[in-house]
Amino acid sequence: MAGYIFTLDSIDSLKEVAETGVYSTKFNNIPEKYWSTPHEGTFADYLSMKNGDNVYFFHKRKIYGIGKLVNIHNNCIFLNFPGADKPGTTSFDMIEDKMILNESKEDLKKRFLCTFKGDPYLFKKGVDMDEVLSSTPHAFKMLRALWKLSFIKIDEIENKALFDCVLKANESIVNGKSGCYQYDKKVHKRIKDIYTTNYLVTSKNIVKYAEENNSIKHEMAIEAAIIDYISNNDSNNIYGTWDYISHQVIASPFKPIDYMDKMDVFGYRYIKGYKTISKYLMIEIKKDAANIETIDQAMKYIDWIEQEYSHDYNMIEAFIVASYISEEVVKKRDESAVRFYTKGRNPAETSQWKNLHLIEYRYNKKNNHIVFKEIAPI
Fold first, then answer.
1. Residues 6 or more apart whose Cβ sits within 8 Å of residue 25
2. What does R_g of the chain's alpha carbons equal in angstroms?
3. Can you give 263-332 as a three-state secondary structure string?
4. CA–CA separation, 274 vs 157, rounded Å?
5. How far is CA 313 from the centre of its chain?
6. Domains along the chain?
7. Residue 23 near residue 76, CB atoms below 8 Å
8. Average pLDDT of the residues of the chain
9. How far from the centroid of its chain's Cα atoms is residue 29's Cα?
């Protein structure tokens, strides 16, 4: 399972989320007509959440945990109120009774939320970030990038290392509850009581309000749509078999944080029926036309995945998604998106990697979906 680390501004906030079993990012400066790129990025992160993923909380260089996302009505993510995925503000008095979190007008800023419980408990004792990173240095990649982000997603290996570190730090109280926050099921019960499909989280309105002249204004909105498709295993698109997704993965972890490059979507899938990784996924997105530099950029990310994760080019499947793919870009792909590698000894086997797919996207106004078409299949 994957894991999420949420950044909190105070210990009081930690107490509140731990006891209610609900986390929601607060959206400030909500635009009136369309979502901003940071808002769309937050939506994309929520769309990848799955029942069973672990959750942790970060405050003043300490990580607190451990929780686990839990489904209510077959979902662990919800709109805080019907229409929360549409930009613009509304009157608290008019929708208070329809809101899941409705203590005050400030809760109008909480558009998406996720539900969780302690796993085994939400411990009051946090673990210093330096202690976490030194506990299993080779396992932590994404955690090192937790800086000025509302939350990040970590993969299964990193999650297991973090889970072990937090649990060991709280071993003396793991069978007792004196050092843990006490869960109150009130909010979860409210979700059960008022839930309808109007609280369902999808990418439709994210894409709808980013559309302009049949094109999408922000790459982050396209990311949200792709992650939605992948996370829900939509069999009608080429991405439907992928299981876990992280978006905005840091691809240059040793550079100063302000200069890090970011690939758009990074994920992996298992061999069916087993917890063994079969393939790694890389998607580079361009809201407009791709160019020949896009190929070089994608190959840089592919090389990084091979070095840091797969250690085998054959385990990487890569995509460029753009509004238009020219013949020039296809030619560049065919010439440059190639890697030769050697496996085994006595005798060594030389193989060739050519697995970069070129995809054009179109916006379908009838159903508020993005549709995809592969150009010049490999």
1. 42, 110, 111, 112, 150, 151
2. 21
3. EEEEEEEECCCCCCEEEEEEEEEEEEECCHHHHHHHHHHHHHHHHHHHCCHHHEEEEEEEEECCHHHHHH
4. 15
5. 24
6. 3-199 (3.10.590.10), 204-375 (3.40.1350.10)
7. no
8. 87
9. 22
What are the pLDDT digits (tens) for 312-336? Answer: 999 999 999 999 999 999 999 999 9
**Helical packing angle, 219-231 and 37-47, nearest 10°:** 10
Asked whether the whole model's pTM tops 0.85, one would answer: yes
Q: Using one digit for the tens of pLDDT, what is the confidence trace for 60-76?
A: 999 999 999 999 999 99
CA 57/CA 63 separation, integer angstroms: 6
When pLDDT is averaged across residues 25-37 and rounded to a whole number, the result is 89
Extract the tokens encoding 290. Answer: 């791709």
Kind of pairing between the strands at 151-154 and 54-59: unpaired
Average confidence (pLDDT) over 49-56: 94
- Mean pLDDT computed over 238-250: 43
Taking 90 as the threshold, does the pLDDT of residue 105 lie above it? yes
Q: How many other C-beta atoms can be found within 10 angstroms of the C-beta atom of residue 367?
A: 7
What's the distance, CA 307 to chain centroid? 22
